Amino acid sequence: MLLEFSVKNFRSIKEKQTLSLVADKGKELLEKNTFQTGLKNIPRAVHSAVIYGPNAAGKSNFILAMEFVEETVLSSAKAKQEGEPFRVKPFLFDANTEKEPSEFEIHFMQADIRYQYGFTVSPRMVVNEWLSVYPKGRPQVWFERKYNVEKEKHDWIFGSFFKGNREMIANATRKNALFLSTAIQLNNEQLKPVYDWFEKTLVVFDVGFGEVLGDEYTKEICEENKDAVKAFLAAADLSILDIKLEREAISPERFKFASDFPSEIKEMMMKSMQTRVKVAHRKTLSSEPVFLDLQEESDGTRKLFALAAPWLNILSQGRVVFVDELNSSLHPLMVRHLIELVNTPALNKSGAQLIFTTHDTSLLDADIFRRDQVWFVEKDKENSTHLYPLTEFSPRQGEALGKGYLKGRYGALPFIGEIKIS
Questions:
Q1: Chain Cα centroid distance, residue 37
Q2: Cα separation of 273 and 290, whole Å?
Q3: For the whole model, what pTM was predicted?
Q4: Is 348:315 a contact under the CB 8 Å cutoff?
């Protein structure tokens, strides 16, 4: 469960900007769009959040920021070599910030325990890193590292609750690697739940969800649980009665993969290419179904089929998903359907969360989102991105949010100048 994500001095983001998924005191859609956290001071969180704003305002940079955090946690200790730089860009429109490190911090829940983890990095090194844990509501500082410029090395602080060989892990941590990542490489069990959240719970798509998925995964799931896929498609009000998989023999010579291509993915793709999907529809005036090849279905149906298995996995595993331009290549009604699945407790029993950017104002609807689920971004005169919630404007319950946004009531609209033709 994600509670809060903050980023500072990253790309178009200059000052610290914070996206919160903590529910406010509003009662609308309370049982549907929010869920209990188990924390006394933060009783409920929202299932989803949407970010609106004009092109080039910085919406995508929040997705890229989370992607950078995920990548750094998972790979800094094992994929990087000594001295290899981070692919991080500070805010370049200020002479001071372009020389300062970028900062990231996440508050999240894992196995009913709240964690506060963050780090600052420059292109060449990790400058600071910290982790506080709230097992009983009170903070415990487990570790903190700060780069000492005079000594040209990090100073380390370890709390009494941190377990493991502190000095060995600290000495093994390179300047361009996170302590968290290094500790996992050295089999520290205490930090494994923190690492697991980034590896198994967090999912980031820096392009539209519908653009990056093939149907291989859904074909795999159909082998094991066809009924779940049928239910997913039926919930979208498609007239599909059944799904049938047919095998066809294809010569191995037709499959060409690089020598280092992962064998697991290679096997799944080969199996998928040998599998044809047929879907059944009801004949007019007849109880007999007629099966059509999936490739004969509409583009929307094919995309929804490809989305079925990943989305079912997101819901069943309680994943936290960031998607840039969720509506890209997807019909607005399909996007609404995906959001509704996340916002429906009977289907989202594991606390999955969805954070996405979009331009689609048809989704800016009080029947879909609570007021604390809607966020906006816009740039100031210094080209710096600002993120702010709809609740800052105290909209009335049931207010026509889409209409209000297009009228400029909440800002975050593109500036369209007058075109003069001489």
A1: 19
A2: 23
A3: 0.89
A4: yes
Helix axes 216-235, 263-273, angle to 10 degrees: 60
Amino acid identity, residue 259?
A: S
CB 82 within 8 A of CB 176: yes
How do strand 2-8 and strand 102-110 relate by DSSP bridges? antiparallel
- How many residues are listed for the chain in this entry? 422
Residues 219, 237 contacting (CB under 8 angstroms)? no
- Helix, strand, or coil here: 315? helix
Three-state DSSP at 249 gives coil
| DSSP annotation of 235 | H
Structure tokens of 249?
């023999």
What single DSSP character describes residue 10?
B
Domain annotation for the chain: domains and CATH numbers: 1-208+324-415 (3.40.50), 214-315 (no CATH)
What's at 133, amino acid-wise?
A: V
Cα separation, 211 vs 330, in Å, equals 9
Q: What is the C-alpha to C-alpha distance for residues 255 and 140, in angstroms, rounded to an integer?
A: 54
pLDDT tens, per residue, the chain with 422 residues: 999 999 999 999 999 999 999 999 999 999 999 999 999 999 999 999 999 999 989 999 999 999 999 999 999 998 777 888 899 999 999 999 999 999 999 999 999 999 999 999 999 999 999 999 999 888 999 999 999 999 999 999 999 999 989 999 999 999 999 999 999 999 999 999 999 999 999 999 887 665 666 788 888 888 888 888 888 888 776 788 889 988 876 665 666 666 666 666 666 666 666 788 898 888 877 778 888 898 888 887 888 888 888 899 999 999 999 999 888 777 888 889 899 999 988 889 999 999 999 999 999 999 999 999 999 999 999 999 999 999 999 988 888 899 999 999 999 887 655 555 65
Encoded tokens for 325: 């331009």
Do the Cβ atoms of 286 and 303 come closer than 8 Å?
no
